[in-house]
Amino acid sequence: MHLQRRPESMTGGQIGQGVRHDVCMDIDYGQLGILPRIGHSYYKKYRYKIEKITFIDVVVLQWDMKDSETGMKDLEGGASPAITRTRAIYERLRRDIIQGTLLPGEKLRIEVLRTRYDVGGTPLREALNRLSTEGLVVQSEQRGFRVTPVSADDLLELTRTRCLINEVALRESIARGGRDWEEGVLLALHRVSRVPLVVDGRMNPDFSELHRVFHAALLAGCGSRWLMDFNDLLFDCAERYRNLLAVMGAVRDVHSEHRAIAEAAIERKTALAIGLLNDHYEKTSGTLLRAIEAGGLAGG
Fold first, then answer.
1. SS3 helix, strand, coil % of the chain, rounded to 5?
2. Which of 87, 140, 196, 222 has CB atoms 3.0–4.6 Å from 169's, for a disulfide?
3. Residue 271 clears pLDDT 60, i.e. is over it
């Protein structure tokens, strides 16, 4: 996501001429209709924190576009074609596992995958080995590679670990984050609030990506790339469970939960923010656990 400030002289009509300009935030009370989910009173309350931001240019790239650009940059920078091929197949496999295209417990036969992804055996094995270090693939000498199964015990452990890591990261983010961090949280909240969670009975991929951005924004002020990287991995593991959910559980107002977490964080109410964030994770975990018990989790 690329954020760019719009020059003060630009008009609303000029903004509309840009195909990439999907979020416009002229700080004017007469234009608050663009924030229906955040609400007028909420926006006025935090107007002083984001009044300098008058334009957001958000460039959302498709996975294939990112893979292509990454490959071109690698080649231009001197990376070998073998390394580029390994990275490309790693990202494709990782995406398919997280999105549920490759189901939990599914055998990952090399010959089948070579045909499916049109890739050689060497980069494929290297990609699978890398995924096994992330816990998304398991390997055994007798059975080869397979997608890591899902289970209630694994989900409970994952949720507990996320709560522990995010408590540390969010506490640090609140203590260290400045105005840029606050703006990032509010902008990510605005974007994720605009899209539905579910489309046609399945998790909305647009929501999934914006959801990731929002949770990353909350922790972005922590000052530790190690915490951020580990958080990304845990988020992906949890996202796999969400994407496998075939039958949605109890109806929740997730957007309101996000808004409450963001408000507590930027107001530096540390204990409240951490409590709300942990509760947010545990509610999702509870829905998923009920789905596992009811057999409503695909591949479970």
1. 65, 5, 30
2. 222
3. yes
